[in-house]
Amino acid sequence: MGAVRWAGMAVAALLTGCTAAPAPRPSPMPAAASPSPAPPASPVAADLTLAFGGDVHFTGRTAGLLKDPATAVGPMAGMLSAADLAVVNLETAVTTRGTPEPKEYHFRAPASVYEALKAAGVDAVSIANNHALDYGRVGFADTLDAAGAAGLPVFGGGRTIDEAYAPLILPVRGVRVAILGFSQIHTLAESWKAGPSTPGIAMAWDVPRAVAAVKSARERADLVIVFNHWGTETDKCPNVNQKTFAAALADAGADLIIGAHAHVLQGDGWLGHTYVAYGLGNFVWYVGSADTGVLRVDVHGRTVTKAELVPAVVSGTGQPEPLTGAAATALTKRFTDLRRCTGLSPA
Fold first, then answer.
1. Number of domains the chain contains
2. Where residue 321 sits, what CATH number does that domain have?
3. 243-278: per-residue pLDDT in tens?
4. Could you tell me which residues come within 8 angstroms of residue 206 by beta carbon, excluding any fewer than 6 positions away?
């Protein structure tokens, strides 16, 4: 099972626009599905440990890992399971249908990908990225349906624009945690964005709507997390669009801003009272080797009290494997040094 401590709460199993099969644990209700406005959140000063991984997909060398979903993510799964809340970006359509979109790379995986992520302790998955609609809206509908059937909450996309931008609100040890996802990738952005009655993903380029979504989440939740898909591929420094959007989200009330997409780690630090980790790189990946890890964040109320990257490397299997000794120390230093080009504060 995932690591969310549900504290005995019975929450209706409702995912964005999906009819969920009975799940082994309760699923959260997106804000958009509430029949009446919730009262403003009063901060709950609980201590939580959060865990974040970067981009995950099962294709090429990682496709065979799904033969045993219980071990597919690999040895870093323990870091995810140990957290009160664990989140990753699912960089793939979950479908066997659809037609490839007019783009260079196409990723898809069977529905067992959700079983693998749940077995690894993942509690919520971002689908706001540039591969969620690789096989069109038919494939995207399957992605949503499979998440509903698996009982694994997804965010950052939906069957309508309201669903795509709605915060996913999870009760975690008495704390209402809101999670939103936005994609800042140009490829097919206009055709992939969600519309009033059109399935799609939440785009960062619609800054007013994204800011409004964060403000809405701030009113409903004790802790607000934004998981973005952004950055320039292979560039270890955040670009101007990332920095500008991060500032807008922080002003709107985001407590944590996490990112992925660049295939490399990017730096972390504080933007005022908001903790920002610009890029977590690849986590379960089909080619190459790269620095990676689980970002473990301790929070008290709305305050990040500690943040550390648990060092790992994408191994020959495509799974992240933990580093120890001198290799771990070296990666920790490399990650700390990445802050120099972020404009973020160390505290």
1. 1
2. 3.60.21.10
3. 999 999 999 999 999 999 999 999 999 999 999 999
4. 193
